[in-house]
Structure formats: structure tokens, C-alpha cells
Amino acid sequence: MNTIISWNVNGIRAIVKKDFYTQLQSLNADVVCLQETKAQDEQVKEALSGITDYHVYCNSATRKGYSGVAILTKTKPISVTPDMGIAEHDDEGRVLCAEYDSFYIVTVYTPNSGNGLKRLAYRKQWDEDFKQYVNGLEEKKPVVVCGDLNVAHQRIDIARPDANYNKSAGFTQDEIDGLSHLLSSGMTDTFRALYPDEVAYSWWSYRGGARAKNIGWRLDYVLISEPLMSRVKNSYILQEYTGSDHCPVGIDLN
Q1: Is the full-model pTM beyond 0.70?
Q2: Does domain 3-253 have CATH number 3.40.830.10?
């Protein structure tokens, strides 16, 4: 298994009407982790029914047209497990874990703190619970976490840090600390580890021509357990791929 890609598709049924199948072929990944599928399990599988070279697994929210994650994998996993086992979180379809011989791959769509930060308290609890969940997996084997973490971790990860700090969802100190705690518990941000000074974003607002102007945020990450970091050949952000307000991110492993 060499290439792992993560992509918030902002609606699987919408993106498959664009160039998604062609883009999937060009990505040529061994595993593709999707977030924000915005569809029920059977709708995800129907939207992806034209794909023959991947096993498709998904976890959808109870609420229709909301959230949802999926894993497309060429190698059949040992097991696939939805959710964290915490009732407060598990009806939103935000976590899916595939177990392989030497590691787990988790696709995650972290909750947004919302307009006016009305969900920030919930988000703080989520971040702590997700850290405990990942650490629990790490007790068995290393973990690759792929997903939209809904936070720009450092000032370099957001085009306008001063205008957004502690005002906008995704760039509050509480959210920054949540990711910092996950990283300090034994995970590595692969892109930032390899490219400490590179400015690259993975999400742009649809408003105001933000993508054309590259006024963006880096919200999408591939994190990896520290023992696996030596296997990471490259980590990248594929800004040329369109169809969503997010672009894919990924890693290549030895």
C-alpha cells in the first residue's frame, strides 16, 4: 500500500456528476478517504457503483444529506468499524476505521464549531474524545488519520490569520489546542513535517473568488503515528483537483 488520499468532496452525488471518476483514476491511490459525502450509505454506494477497482465502505449520519464519510480501498481490509463508540458523537457519521496488517486508516470529518462558535464547546469535547479514540487504536498498531479536521493549525495554514483568530470557526485557540494535543500524543502532521515553511491551502470559500485569489485555509490533513513517519516518502496538497470547495491531500509510503 503506497498512496493514501483524503478528500472532502462536499457531496458525493454532486461530485460524481463532474469529473470525479476521471480524477479518481488519475489519483491512482490505494486508499481514498472521503468526507462530507452528504448521503445515506445506500446512496453513497449507488453514486460509486461505476467504480470496480475499489471496495467501498461508508458511514452516514442519521440526519439525511449531512456529514458522512467513506473509504475506497483496493485491498480488502481485515475489518472496518464505524464511529468511536460514544453515543454523543456517533449519529453524525464522522468516523470510519479500516484495519490493515500493519496499521489502521481512519477517515474523519471533524465537527465545525459553527457560526458564532455556537458549537465550540461540543467541538472541544469531540477533540478530546477523538484523541482518546486514536490513542486507543495506537495501543494495538500505528494509525493513519485522514480527513477534514476543520482547523487551521498554524498562522501559515490560513491566508488571513489576524482577521480570523478567535473569531472564526476553525481558527480559535481552543481548536488549535485540540489538534496540538493530538499531535503531542504521538501523531505527526505529515505535510508540515516535510514542508515546514510551505504555504498551501486545501479549502477556499465559494464566495468572493477566494480560490482564484488563493485566499484559503489548510483544513485537510494526513496525520500518522510517529513510528510510521519513516515510511512517508511524500505528503502533498493537490490544488489542481476541482469539484469541491476542498482539494485532495495525500501521502506516499515506502
Answers
A1: yes
A2: no
Q: Facing residues of 237 across strands?
A: 249
Residues 6+ apart with CB under 8 A from 87: none
Q: Is 220 a catalytic residue?
A: no
* Separation of CA 61 from chain center: 16
* CB neighbour list of residue 132: distance below 8 Å, 6 or more residues apart: none
Give per-residue pLDDT as tens, 171-193.
Answer: 999 999 999 999 999 999 999 99
| Residue of 109, 133, 201, 221 marked active site | 109
CA angle 185, 238, 80 (to 5 degrees): 50
The alpha carbon dihedral of 238, 162, 129, 134 has a sign of positive
Q: Is 148 a catalytic residue?
A: yes
Q: Which residues pair with 246 in a beta bridge?
A: 203
- Three-state SS at 181: helix
Q: Give me 142's grid cell.
A: 500505528
Q: CA triplet 236, 240, 243: central angle to 5 degrees?
A: 115
User: Which of these is catalytic: 30, 54, 127, 148?
Assistant: 148
Residue written as grid cell 489576524:
162
Task: Please report the DSSP string for 41-61 in residue order.
Answer: HHHHHHHTTT--SSEEEEE--
C-alpha 150/C-alpha 174 separation (Å) is 12
